[in-house]
Design goal:
- The chain has about 240 residues and is α+β, with helices and mostly antiparallel strands.
- The protein contains seven helices and five strands, in the order αααααββββαβα.
- The chain has a five-stranded mixed beta sheet with strand order 3-2-1-4-5.
- Strand 2 and strand 3 form a beta hairpin.
- The longest helix is centred in the middle third of the chain and has 24 residues.
- This is Maleylpyruvate isomerase family mycothiol-dependent enzyme.
- InterPro entries: DinB/YfiT-like, Maleyloyr_isom, MDMPI_C-term_domain, MDMPI_metal-binding.
- Keywords: Isomerase.
């Protein structure tokens, strides 16, 4: 997906997040993140937005931790989040396409990395805000949802910190039913290797519309929302160990 399109998604998803948070109230529990209330969600995503914006705006080439500064009182928390989110959108919109800065997943450019990362960070946490508000979730396009699955499988779960591992080699396939995207994950005692194809046999396959795959694999819907064929132990492995 192009940077401009993803920046529009960052903008839209943040606005939806703020609106849902305001409707829910900052003390509402967040069912998709059981240890959180809306105030925790807003504080987290606001700090992440500020952290991401610093890398791009300041051209930071070494990792830094998110700034630990107190979020405002409950009465001002939603408006604070709107301001922080607006600054992020502005930084991404006006950034030099050739900016050099720190990233932590492979990407065609640092700006492309941060635009994509913040689009999915905001989108998944918008789901959290809507779960606190109640009612249905706003939809994603299949293309964007498939991109989020790709970032998760080929990006985050390629890192050493992934706990999706097996004692003996196993193969997990993930297939969209509405978008044409397929991934094959090679599981072992090492970090998973993800290939963007559906060739060869698989021990287990998850399939479903891209939007359902996106939310289930990011643990915002139960894995049972997907069609699972093959070894149920791999579905159990995902439920228990895939959290990022």
């Amino acid at each position: 997906m192009e940077n401009a399109e993803l920046i529009e998604i960052v903008d839209r998803e943040g606005r939806l997040l703020a609106d849902a948070a305001a409707e829910a109230g900052v003390d509402a529990p967040v069912p998709t993140c059981p240890d959180w209330r809306v105030r925790d969600l807003l504080s987290h995503i606001g700090r992440v937005h500020g952290w991401a914006a610093r890398f791009v705006a300041e051209g930071l080439t070494e990792p830094v931790r998110p700034t630990v500064e107190g979020a405002p009182d409950d009465a001002e928390l939603v408006s604070w989040y709107r301001e922080v989110h607006g600054r992020l959108v502005d930084v991404l919109t006006h950034a030099d396409p050739e900016v050099k800065c720190f990233t932590f997943l492979p990407s065609e450019s640092p700006l492309a990395f941060w635009v994509r990362r913040q689009a999915h960070e905001t989108a998944i946490h918008r789901i959290d805000a809507e779960s606190a508000r109640g009612g249905g979730f706003s939809p994603f396009t299949p293309e964007f949802a498939a991109d989020g699955v790709d970032e998760l499988l080929a990006g985050f779960h390629s890192l050493d910190r992934s706990r999706v591992r097996t004692d003996t080699p196993r193969t997990l396939r993930v297939r969209t039913t509405d978008q044409g995207a397929v991934w094959t994950m090679r599981l072992s005692q090492d970090a998973p290797r993800t290939e963007r194809h559906g060739e060869g046999a698989a021990d287990c396959e998850f399939s479903g519309p891209a939007g359902d795959l996106y939310l289930a694999l990011w643990n915002r819907l139960p894995i049972s929302a997907l069609t699972t064929e093959g070894d149920e132990k791999l579905a159990e492995l995902w439920r228990e160990h895939s959290g990022i």
